[in-house]
Amino acid sequence: MANILLIETATQVCSVAIASDGNILSIRESHDQRSHSALITSFVAEVLNDASIEFSQIDAVAVSKGPGSYTGLRIGVSTAKGICFALDKPLLAVGTLESMTKGFLEAYKNEITEHDLLCPMIDARRMEVYTALFDDVGNMIQPTEAKIIDEDSFNDLLNAHRIWLFGDGAQKCKSSFSDKNNVLIVEDFNPSAAHLSQLAEIRFQLGDAEDLAYFEPFYLKEFIAGLPKVKGLH
């Protein structure tokens, strides 16, 4: 029986869960922006307490590796690595778009039909999103990219497929696809640590762990800090 701690902080959602053999035992989530650093350690303690699992009984830690928020990913990965170092346990990394698609398939399994395409979207900036394209059973068919969305996006696919857009990046795409019936936008779907459970269990059974010393989140784009605004300097 594998007890895997699950951490999802790639977006504004801070989500922590504990799973046993891929089944969620306890979960804590917050949708408050910029709350990750304040909540993540208490969430870890709470889910373990709820599940009556000691720290020493954790077999692995799985973390959502990105793409997503630079700060959120850094907090989640550093927390996961710290726990793994302390317990000498393996670190499992799951792509954020992959886990979102897994969760979406489970939530909408009665509505997704053959030949539908699934397009998870994480908000980047302006009309740009981090996205990838998956088929109706969750196989990735177009790789992760930073994509600028406009009314011509996906035109080459819409004659043969319905496309589901979901995640916080999908919300800002409504105006671009308002006249396209084959584009289905789900606005209230968010990443969750629960979506990591089955994928993390598979990685654990395969021994597919990361190198703790060298693992870094998948930022996709380099972080660009804003220039400090100091009075009198230009």
Short description:
This protein has helices spanning 36-50, 70-87, 96-107, 197-206; strands at 3-8, 14-20, 23-30, 60-64, 91-94, 117-123, 128-134, 140-148, 163-166, 183-186.
Sheet/helix structural class: alpha/beta
What Rg do the Cα atoms give?
18 Å
Beta-strand proportion = 25-35%
Number of strands: 10
Which fold name fills CATH's third level, the topology of the largest domain? Nucleotidyltransferase, domain 5
Oligomer: single chain
**What's the end-to-end separation, in Å?**
60 Å
Textual characterization of the structure:
By secondary structure, the protein is α/β, with parallel strands linked by helices. The chain has 2 domains: 109 residues, ATPase, nucleotide binding domain (Nucleotidyltransferase, domain 5), CATH 3.30.420.40; 90 residues, Nucleotidyltransferase, domain 5 (2-Layer Sandwich). 24% of the residues lie in helices and 26% in strands. It is built from 4 helices and 10 strands. It has a 5-stranded mixed β-sheet, with helices on both faces. It starts with a strand and ends in a 28-residue tail after the last helix.
Ordered list of secondary-structure elements with their pairings:
Blueprint: E1 3-8, E2 14-20, E3 23-30, H1 36-50, E4 60-64, H2 70-87, E5 91-94, H3 96-107, E6 117-123, E7 128-134, E8 140-148, E9 163-166, E10 183-186, H4 197-206
Parallel strand pairs: 1-4, 4-5, 6-9, 9-10
Antiparallel strand pairs: 1-2, 2-3, 6-7, 7-8
Helix pairs in contact: 1-2
